[in-house]
Amino acid sequence: MSRKLPNIIVTGTPGVGKTTHCEALAQRTGLRHLSVNQVVKDKGCHEGYDDEYQSWIVDEDKLLDAIEDDAKEGGCIIDWHACDLFPRSWIDLVVVLRVDSETLYDRLAERKYPEKKMQENIDSEIMEVLLQEARESYDEEIVVELTSNTSDEMESNVDRIEAWLRQWKEDNQAS
Ligand code: ADP
């Protein structure tokens, strides 16, 4: 069953700018910002809270059940720091945001992340973990890497994704 609107994943290491991009995109395009973090919390898709990492231990099966109807309908911008769990058939574009490690350090320090979590996230960004995960999980042609160090870069990223959406509609909504 084909969707009338595409589903987009915006992924990357915590602090790269996923939420900021998704909110701007949702406002500009009318697509729905689906914050996985929020769904996990609101719908209890977790097995408890990890105090050391200060994050929820996600139950992926529950999460997929919780978002399946939205994803099948289309028009979701999925905001999450992982992407390999979503079925390939749900997804039309995967945006991997990237940031310099100094910038990421500053953003995570501002969030007062525990030292261990901060270091692991910076290492993960340097090692391109999310980019690799995206490339291994989806067709190469739907994975796009965009930098998110400055607000100008964010503006141009949002423009680019908006242009991609216009094209997708032209290609998929023709009667
Ligand atoms: P994520 O959702 O990936 O964890 P956020 O969107 O919450 O990241 O962004 C983390 C912080 O970095 C926020 O304070 C946000 O304002 C800032 N930020 C995000 N992207 C950019 C950017 N491209 N330029 C400047 N600041 C940014």
UniProtKB/TrEMBL annotation:
<dbReference type="GO" id="GO:0006364">
    <property type="term" value="P:rRNA processing"/>
</dbReference>
<comment type="function">
    <text>Broad-specificity nucleoside monophosphate (NMP) kinase that catalyzes the reversible transfer of the terminal phosphate group between nucleoside triphosphates and monophosphates. Has also ATPase activity. Involved in the late cytoplasmic maturation steps of the 40S ribosomal particles, specifically 18S rRNA maturation. While NMP activity is not required for ribosome maturation, ATPase activity is. Associates transiently with small ribosomal subunit protein uS11. ATP hydrolysis breaks the interaction with uS11.</text>
</comment>
<keyword id="KW-0690">Ribosome biogenesis</keyword>
<keyword id="KW-0539">Nucleus</keyword>
<dbReference type="InterPro" id="IPR020618">
    <property type="entry name" value="Adenyl_kinase_AK6"/>
</dbReference>
<feature type="binding site">
    <location>
        <position position="20"/>
    </location>
    <ligand>
        <name>ATP</name>
    </ligand>
</feature>
<comment type="similarity">
    <text>Belongs to the adenylate kinase family. AK6 subfamily.</text>
</comment>
<keyword id="KW-0418">Kinase</keyword>
<feature type="binding site">
    <location>
        <position position="19"/>
    </location>
    <ligand>
        <name>ATP</name>
    </ligand>
</feature>
<keyword id="KW-0067">ATP-binding</keyword>
<dbReference type="GO" id="GO:0005524">
    <property type="term" value="F:ATP binding"/>
</dbReference>
<dbReference type="GO" id="GO:0016887">
    <property type="term" value="F:ATP hydrolysis activity"/>
</dbReference>
<dbReference type="GO" id="GO:0005737">
    <property type="term" value="C:cytoplasm"/>
</dbReference>
<keyword id="KW-0698">rRNA processing</keyword>
<dbReference type="InterPro" id="IPR027417">
    <property type="entry name" value="P-loop_NTPase"/>
</dbReference>
<feature type="binding site">
    <location>
        <position position="18"/>
    </location>
    <ligand>
        <name>ATP</name>
    </ligand>
</feature>
<feature type="binding site">
    <location>
        <position position="111"/>
    </location>
    <ligand>
        <name>ATP</name>
    </ligand>
</feature>
<dbReference type="GO" id="GO:0005634">
    <property type="term" value="C:nucleus"/>
</dbReference>
<protein>
    <recommendedName>
        <fullName>Adenylate kinase isoenzyme 6 homolog</fullName>
        <ecNumber>2.7.4.3</ecNumber>
    </recommendedName>
</protein>
<feature type="binding site">
    <location>
        <position position="15"/>
    </location>
    <ligand>
        <name>ATP</name>
    </ligand>
</feature>
<dbReference type="GO" id="GO:0004017">
    <property type="term" value="F:AMP kinase activity"/>
</dbReference>
<keyword id="KW-0547">Nucleotide-binding</keyword>
<dbReference type="GO" id="GO:0042274">
    <property type="term" value="P:ribosomal small subunit biogenesis"/>
</dbReference>
<dbReference type="Pfam" id="PF13238">
    <property type="entry name" value="AAA_18"/>
</dbReference>
<feature type="region of interest" description="NMPbind">
    <location>
        <begin position="35"/>
        <end position="58"/>
    </location>
</feature>
<comment type="subunit">
    <text>Interacts with small ribosomal subunit protein uS11. Not a structural component of 43S pre-ribosomes, but transiently interacts with them by binding to uS11.</text>
</comment>
<feature type="region of interest" description="LID">
    <location>
        <begin position="110"/>
        <end position="120"/>
    </location>
</feature>
<keyword id="KW-0963">Cytoplasm</keyword>
<feature type="binding site">
    <location>
        <position position="17"/>
    </location>
    <ligand>
        <name>ATP</name>
    </ligand>
</feature>
<keyword id="KW-0808">Transferase</keyword>
